Hints:
By secondary structure, the chain is mainly α. The protein contains 3 helices and no strands. It starts with a helix and ends with a helix.
Amino acid sequence: xxxxxxxxxxxxxxxxxxxxxxxxxxxxxxxxxxxxxxxxxxxxxxxxxxxxxxxxxxxxxxxxxxxxxxxxxxxxxxxxxxx
Length: 83
């Protein structure tokens, strides 16, 4: 049937795109948890001066994670990096 191969390729690309985004989001979440742990260590050790900077990093990382997770399949990479 005409068009079936193209449809299957498109679905396969979407599936791979979703897997890649999920993997990237998991890796970034692990990094965010490490930064949050570092933030807690700094706070415990008297590093209150760094809290604003650390909070900004955690917030931006979370924003990136959320954008990657919620982006439509096939979403252009340039749209994710703009922000």
